[in-house]
Amino acid sequence: MTSFVAIDFETANRAKESACAVGLVRVENLQIVQKAYYLICPPQSHFEFTHIHGIRWTDVAAQPTFGDLWSELHPLIAGTDFIAAHNAGFDRAVLHACCNSYSIPRPAQDFICTVQLARRTWSLYPTKLPDVCRYLGLQLDHHYALSDAEACAQIVIAATQPIV
Question: What pLDDT does residue 1 have?
Fold first, then answer.
């Protein structure tokens, strides 16, 4: 494993293209080398999940769209071996829906799910992100996209370490 990016999206509502925040953490040779966090103006102003992440339409209305941010996001993802996310099916679906909405080619990397990784590596149940972070002694500001992405990166790093 040489490089990967951990990613976490927060969405405004149930529409997969409604990303309103993204956190990315790039890892090379098991070292975090870059972190990025962006608020995103989603295609619609309807916010259903403010109670989860605290983001409101007024926070993002003047922010760039996913299409506008792609030139910032793409270099973080480009050239990596895989993309890691906790409950990767969700983040993969959001990334792909956002790319599709702006006619952006989807990143070709496979996703690794840190839920599955934690279950396989440490036989953890439950495996919600706060549970895995508690087990590994990681700090977490849950549903702040950069904190969630950094936790995912740390989970992948920890899973590669030998048991002492």
Answer: 56
Give the pLDDT confidence score for residue 131 in this predicted structure: 97
Structure confidence at residue 161 (pLDDT): 83
Identify whether the C-beta of residue 24 lies closer than 8 Å to the C-beta of residue 31.
no
- Residue 57 burial (10 A CB sphere; 0-12, 13-18, 19+): middle
For 151, other C-beta atoms within 10 Å of its C-beta total: 25
Residue 126 preceded by cis peptide, ω within 30? yes
DSSP 116: H
Q: Residue 35 in contact with residue 146, Cβ under 8 Å?
A: yes
Q: With 60 as the cut, is the pLDDT of residue 164 above it?
A: no
Structure tokens at 152: 């995912």
The arrangement of strands across the sheet holding 82-85 comes to: 31-39, 19-28, 3-11, 82-85, 110-113
pLDDT at 163 over 90: no
Host H or E run for residue 156 = helix 145-160
Round to whole Å and give the CA distance between 29 and 92: 23
Range 101-131 burial, b when 16+ CB lie within 10 A, else e? beebeebebebbbbbebbeebbebeebebee
